[in-house]
Amino acid sequence: MELYEMRQHLESIRVRLSELRSSLDIAGLEASVKALNEKTLAPDFWNDSDAAQSIMVELNGKRESVDAFQEIESAYQDLRDMLELLDEDEFMASQKELTEELETVERKLAALAKKALLSGEYDANDCYFSIHAGSGGTEAMDWAGMLQRMYERWFQTKDWKVSLTDINTEETGGIKSVQFEVKGYNAYGYCKGEKGVHRLVRISPFDSQSRRHTSFASVDVYPVLKDIGEIQIDEKDIKVDTYRSTGAGGQHVNTTDSAIRITHLPTGVVVTCQNERSQIQNRAKAMEILVSKLMQIKEEEHREKIADIQGSYKQIAWGSQIRSYVFQPYTLVKDHRTGEETGNIEKVMNGDLDPFVDAYLNWHAQQEAKGE
């Protein structure tokens, strides 16, 4: 790279930094970090550990963005100042080191730019993440279990706190459904693109004739809403069922009817919870999930979106998939919205989902820019 080319690269970085300062609202983030930090200094801050932890997650997430921007800006300024002082010969003597520094700045800038795509109203929130087996019987329930393992491995790569709130297993293997609560800054923003039907094509291990099968499972993601005070639920509008927990757990699991299923009669929204230690705790968590769903319905103000929010797709089957995972006769994972694909299916099933998540965020931003 010639000296004039590097200066052109730096000018491009200057423009991108200016755009990021605006799109990320660095000034607003700095003010928010200051306000949140002041909250942590209150003597009673840790009296409510859940609320305190939520504030710390938000504080750390926003501080990380501010620190990353300031680090990139400082590195850019150092490079700019150095290039202004160097002549051609001096530049050539340090070309390798300067090029490496420039590449590092551009790499960090690209990583930070991804966060600018998380500008939705609820993107910064925690989320509920659920998987449901679809068409395909035992094969589909096995596929839902495979997706559970894949997403658990992806969650592990993030700085998120993940807890299992409900699971419905099948005696022959696999799962009918599973739900997680995912806590972390921008958890909903990163997870929302996974919502939809996921299609599997493989030689079925359950087919004695080793034939190729296609099966489906759906993923549903919706944000945990912080302001839920406006939703008032009348007891006559809900139906509460208790049943015996089916997942792994302590002594209370499989011995008492501690699991809770709540149906909101006016909307048909159904929520379940079984992973808390008592029926009372499960009911409280289930009501929290229900209120969050109903609040989102109210925010969106479209009754037709109720089915999307509760995750009951019209048909978890052929033609409605967002992504296909092909094991035979070739290996391919392809997202049908973005066109992102890879032949390394093993890597994807081990939780390497970031390329698909990044591609979705870019695609979604382009769709919004087009008004679609």
Give a short summary of the structure:
This protein has 372 residues and is an alpha+beta fold. The chain has helices at residues 3-23, 26-40, 49-85, 88-93, 95-116, 137-156, 187-191, 279-300, 306-310, 345-349, 354-370, and strands at 127-133, 161-169, 175-183, 196-203, 212-223, 238-243, 259-264, 269-273, 321-326, 332-335, 341-342.
Short descriptors:
single chain, alpha+beta, 3-stranded antiparallel β-sheet, 11 helices
Please explain how this structure is put together.
This protein has 372 residues and is of the alpha+beta class. The chain is built from eleven helices and eleven strands. It has helices at residues 3-23, 26-40, 49-85, 88-93, 95-116, 137-156, 187-191, 279-300, 306-310, 345-349, 354-370, and strands at residues 127-133, 161-169, 175-183, 196-203, 212-223, 238-243, 259-264, 269-273, 321-326, 332-335, 341-342. A hairpin with a 5-residue loop joins strand 9 and strand 10. The longest helix has 37 residues, at 49-85.
Order of strands, main sheet, comes to 2-3-1-5-4-9-10-11
Q: Based on DSSP secondary structure assignment, what is the total number of beta strands? A: 11
Order of helices and strands: HHHHHEHEEHEEEEEHHEEEHH
Q: How many angstroms does the end-to-end distance come to?
A: 40 Å
- Overall residue-averaged pLDDT value: 87
Are there runs of 5+ residues with pLDDT below 50, and where?
A: 248-254, 302-307, 309-314
Measured by DSSP, the beta-strand proportion falls in 15-25%
Number of discrete helical segments: 11
Helical coverage, percent range: 40-55%
